[in-house]
């Protein structure tokens, strides 16, 4: 995935579409950011300068689907194989029913991309009607996170099989990329050198977050602002 | 069960149009077993939104399935405003109460004491209301305030047309934007987002469009612009006139357009024979870069530079305005319009064009009896007598509510509120609450139990935005006429009725000329009439995502790609949109027949010995009330796309997006500059009290250099008292703290800055 921060206006349509698609639960108060569940979060960055040189930008953060050799930070620490990386698709998945809620993965993830279910999910009765049957709601005591909408990938693969096509050749769009009004999010197969994402990942504006940790994120960002590039390495440079 | 197990089944897709804001986005919804909507996305084939969506639209199902939906007609049995007093009532009984009241008021010869406030100004229901009020006989029909309320008056005075402004942002190479919150949900939000995205994309062979943004606060638009000019709050119009000064002094303006098509640039003689100073003389005398620098805080050098840069551009356009629902000071609107005229944006280049607010005659002329003539001839309640007489009816909602709340002129026997929530969403919302309490009977058509519906005597719930058949006439800010039909994405699941059908039903019950004026069987028939009108006109195109707005030229009608009305209807209901070119600005219907920088239309409404300035654009902020000693700060409000400030509240999904230095538990944060915070002894996240002449409220402080010293910025869209636990009691309603200034010429309620005090709690 490539997210163009020059185009991103921080509107949040991506995060809302994600919550709708993945049955992410919500509570009356969502202001405790250590307790809230969000697969796609918007971070606010600023250039640290005074008025009127001050500038702000929003950075949408899905799961980075780390590609580091052998293991992603989260999969490495999971004692029960609840979170695993599919080496075929590259997607780091989390299987809620295996999760014992130890939260090692949350500690290990340098991107805060994981959330814990501190409570049973509860929807207002009337809103249960809008839950998608394609993604199971999670229960209290387990971790959850962005899956790159892998159920959409499965759906596309199924369709390919039915049509007699190669399931490995399918393309699909996760909810966030689909909703984005500015087209800031591009999604595709990084290993395919002809894909848009592979081309954009080589753009001079491209960078990844906390690159020095060698987690090898599969999410690239684009920005023409040097101050944004600088913050990507957080004090590690 | 301890977690829900969603019903499985066949998943299908339908298309529709989002009605949650005036943006007219095409949507697609996924349904389970045809009756359970589980996902909303943009329609990639739609001519304007092209698959994009805003967070409100993406969260749309949370309104459809909201627990605060009104599921059946309700009657207040207790005291007005008591939420416990609502009791269910049958539709026929409820409608009979309204029809009886309407008949009784008319019988008393007081039809003008019936009023309506609608939040829909781009739906055919509004035309039905207009038709109904004309035939019934009342001038008291208002829409919720919009920026177009004042721009339409400015356009009518300058050109003689009743039209909205359309901006050719697709063609622009340079955009000078005076404060319009482009990325925070301006005009048709998704269209603007997509245009912004295009500006950020390098296209081989095409020059990059430059966006220069003028605003006092470091908003996201300011941050994302190529250049941000920070000015003092509310001084944008002065800066525009300063730029006009440089253009005139250095002869950088479009001289051909000005000499051939413009009146009032040079000195002129009024009808009484008096010699009047023209725009050139006044601007040269009063708005030198040095003077303007003192007012705006923008360097004289920068003003000069901006003017030269603007003049160099081939396709430059000037945008302005606060949020899309705040009318502006008339003279300031005229200033920005004048600047567009000077740079030739109104010439044949047509960077700015006039889009008629009704592409066709709305509905047949209403049949009016004597009673209707008498009633309609009454002065709209509270409207100042000085309002300019143009083709545009001034939407003096604040003046109306003011007169109603204070019991002036005449009482209102019956007040309809349709898709509007003035008790929350109107600036100085307490005025609306007071007015609602004074009205004889309040009938609401709300879909949700909001702050305004709480004051109703009777609620006749409308279908939700995703459940009803409706339409969208025109897109705000778009340089082409537009029409789309919104088809429901699923069947209404409560005992609600389309307001269009209710209005038609009421007219039928009243009988006589009222029934004659609204003869249609149901609302669908009215919408089909639109399709027939389009087919009959045989101009314009039915378009999908391949539509390129840059190909539309004013005055050049598009050759129709349709014939029969039935085909038009079929395509419209399948998600196609009808578009047509705006009108050409060749024959202004002003007294001079030209574009008037000196508006002779104002002769009737300003006194004969008025200063020359009063006929044309000038900088004239209305002084905020209160004592600067006691209230030393200026309060400005801001919005963001992830905070819904309009008719619908923030959905729970959107609350997740709010950072914890904007909303923490129930506390909203105001932004103050570090210097101001230090002076006031306020630390980051400190609890404080924000006080304005209208009241005070608890807040917290976000210390950030996003605003200049002595300015405090408060977000809009919080502080609801109605709805449910996911919405209510969060933060402060900005509308309850800002001060409304009635524009002395148009009588419209404008907002710019309010004096304020911030102290440690």
Automatic annotation (TrEMBL), chain A:
Chain ranges of the 4Fe-4S ferredoxin-type domain: 1-29, 88-119
Leader sequence segment: none
InterPro entries: 4Fe4S_Fe-S-bd (IPR017896), 4Fe4S_Fe_S_CS (IPR017900), ET_IronSulfur_Cluster-Binding (IPR050954), Menaquinone_reductase_QrcC (IPR053552)
Biological source species: Desulfacinum infernum DSM 9756
Domain of life from the UniProt record: Bacteria
Residue stretches spanning the membrane: none
GO molecular function: 4 iron, 4 sulfur cluster binding; metal ion binding
PROSITE patterns: 4FE4S_FER_1, 4FE4S_FER_2
Positions in coiled-coil regions: none
The protein's name in its UniProt record: Prokaryotic molybdopterin-containing oxidoreductase family, iron-sulfur binding subunit
SUPFAM superfamilies: 4Fe-4S ferredoxins
Keywords for this protein: 4Fe-4S, Iron, Iron-sulfur, Metal-binding
Listed Pfam families: Fer4 (PF00037), Fer4_11 (PF13247)
């Amino acid at each position: 995935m490539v997210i163009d921060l020059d185009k991103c206006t921080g509107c949040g349509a991506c995060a809302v579409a994600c919550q709708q698609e993945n049955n992410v639960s919500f509570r009356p108060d969502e202001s405790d950011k250590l307790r809230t569940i969000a697969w796609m979060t918007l971070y606010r960055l600023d250039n640290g300068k005074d008025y009127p040189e001050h500038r702000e930008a929003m950075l949408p953060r899905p799961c980075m689907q780390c590609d580091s050799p052998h293991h992603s930070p989260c999969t490495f620490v999971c004692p029960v194989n609840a979170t695993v990386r599919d080496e075929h698709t590259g997607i780091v998945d989390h299987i809620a029913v295996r999760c014992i809620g130890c939260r090692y993965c949350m500690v290990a993830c340098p991107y805060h991309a994981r959330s814990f279910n501190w409570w049973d999910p509860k929807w207002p009765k009337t809103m249960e009607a809008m839950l998608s049957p394609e993604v199971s709601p999670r229960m209290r005591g387990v971790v959850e996170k962005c899956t790159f909408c892998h159920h959409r990938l499965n759906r596309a693969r199924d369709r390919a099989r039915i049509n007699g096509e190669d399931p490995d050749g399918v393309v699909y769009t996760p909810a966030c990329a689909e909703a984005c009004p500015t087209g800031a999010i591009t999604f595709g197969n990084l290993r395919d050198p002809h894909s848009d994402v592979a081309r954009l990942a080589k753009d001079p504006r491209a960078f990844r977050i906390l690159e020095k940790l060698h987690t090898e994120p599969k999410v690239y960002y684009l920005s023409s602002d040097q101050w944004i590039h600088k913050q990507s390495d957080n004090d590690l440079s | 069960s301890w977690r829900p197990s969603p019903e499985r089944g066949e998943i299908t897709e339908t298309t529709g149009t989002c009605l949650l804001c005036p943006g007219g986005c095409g949507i697609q919804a996924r349904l389970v077993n045809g009756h359970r909507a589980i996902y909303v996305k943009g329609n990639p084939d739609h001519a304007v939104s092209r698959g994009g969506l805003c967070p409100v639209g993406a969260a749309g199902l949370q309104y459809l399935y909201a627990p605060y939906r009104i599921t059946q007609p309700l009657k207040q049995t207790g005291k007005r405003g008591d939420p416990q007093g609502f009791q269910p009532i049958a539709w026929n009984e409820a409608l009979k109460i309204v029809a009886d009241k309407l008949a009784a008021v008319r019988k008393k010869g007081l039809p003008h004491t019936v009023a309506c406030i609608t939040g829909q100004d781009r739906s055919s229901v509004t035309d039905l209301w207009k038709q109904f009020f004309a035939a019934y006989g009342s001038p008291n029909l208002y829409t919720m305030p919009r920026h177009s309320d004042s721009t339409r008056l400015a356009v009518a005075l300058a050109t003689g047309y009743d039209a909205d402004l359309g901006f050719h942002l697709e063609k622009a190479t340079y955009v000078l934007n005076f404060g319009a919150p482009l990325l925070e949900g301006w005009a048709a939000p998704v269209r603007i987002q997509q245009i912004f995205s295009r500006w950020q994309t390098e296209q081989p062979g095409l020059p990059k469009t430059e966006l220069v943004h003028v605003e006092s606060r470091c908003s996201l638009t300011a941050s994302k612009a190529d250049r941000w000019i920070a000015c003092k709050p509310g001084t944008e119009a002065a800066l525009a006139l300063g730029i006009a000064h440089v253009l005139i002094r250095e002869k950088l303006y479009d001289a051909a357009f000005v000499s051939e098509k413009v009146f009032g640039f040079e000195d002129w003689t009024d009808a009484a024979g008096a010699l009047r100073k023209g725009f050139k003389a006044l601007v040269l005398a009063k708005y030198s870069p040095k003077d303007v620098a003192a007012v705006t805080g923008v360097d004289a050098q920068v003003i000069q530079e901006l003017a030269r840069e603007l003049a160099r551009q081939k396709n430059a356009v000037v945008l302005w305005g606060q949020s899309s629902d705040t009318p502006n000071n008339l003279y300031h609107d005229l200033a920005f319009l004048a600047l567009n005229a000077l740079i030739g944006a109104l010439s044949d280049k047509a960077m700015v064009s006039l889009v008629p607010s009704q592409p066709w005659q709305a509905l047949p002329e209403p049949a009016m009896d004597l009673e209707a003539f008498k009633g309609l001839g009454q002065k709209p309640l509270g409207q100042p007598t000085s309002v300019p007489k143009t083709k545009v009816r001034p939407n003096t909602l604040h003046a109306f509510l003011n007169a109603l709340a204070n019991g002036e002129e005449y009482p209102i026997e019956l007040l309809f509120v349709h898709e509007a929530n003035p008790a929350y969403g109107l600036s100085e919302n307490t005025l609306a609450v007071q007015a609602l309490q004074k009205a004889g009977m309040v009938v609401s058509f709300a879909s949700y139990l909001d702050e305004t519906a709480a004051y109703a005597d009777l609620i006749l719930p409308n279908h939700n935005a995703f459940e009803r058949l409706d339409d969208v006439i025109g897109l705000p800010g778009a340089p082409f006429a537009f029409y789309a039909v919104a088809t429901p994405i699923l069947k209404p699941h409560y005992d609600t009725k389309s307001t269009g059908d209710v209005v038609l039903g009421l007219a039928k019950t009243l009988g006589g000329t009222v029934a004659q004026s609204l003869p249609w069987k149901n609302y669908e028939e009215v919408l089909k009439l639109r399709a027939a009108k389009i087919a009959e006109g045989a101009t314009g195109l039915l378009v999908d995502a391949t539509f390129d707005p840059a190909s539309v030229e004013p005055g050049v009608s598009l050759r129709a790609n349709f014939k029969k009305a039935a085909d038009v209807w079929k395509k419209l209901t399948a998600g196609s949109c009808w578009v047509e070119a705006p009108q050409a600005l060749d024959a202004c219907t002003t007294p001079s027949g030209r574009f008037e920088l000196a508006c002779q239309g104002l002769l009737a409404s300003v006194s004969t010995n008025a200063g020359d300035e009063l006929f044309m654009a000038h900088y004239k902020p209305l002084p905020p009330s209160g004592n600067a000693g006691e209230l030393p700060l200026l309060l400005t409000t801001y919005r963001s796309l992830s905070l819904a400030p309009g008719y619908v509240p923030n959905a729970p999904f959107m609350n997740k997006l709010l950072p914890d230095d904007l909303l923490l538990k129930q506390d909203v944060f105001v932004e103050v500059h570090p210097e101001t915070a230090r002076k006031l002894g306020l630390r980051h996240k400190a609890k404080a009290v924000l006080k304005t002449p209208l009241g005070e409220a608890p807040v917290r402080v976000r210390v950030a250099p996003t605003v200049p010293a002595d300015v405090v910025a408060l977000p809009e869209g919080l502080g609801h008292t109605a709805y449910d636990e996911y919405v209510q009691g969060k933060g402060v309603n900005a509308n309850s703290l800002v001060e409304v200034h009635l524009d002395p010429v148009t009588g419209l309620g404008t907002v710019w800055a309010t004096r304020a005090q911030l102290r440690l709690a």
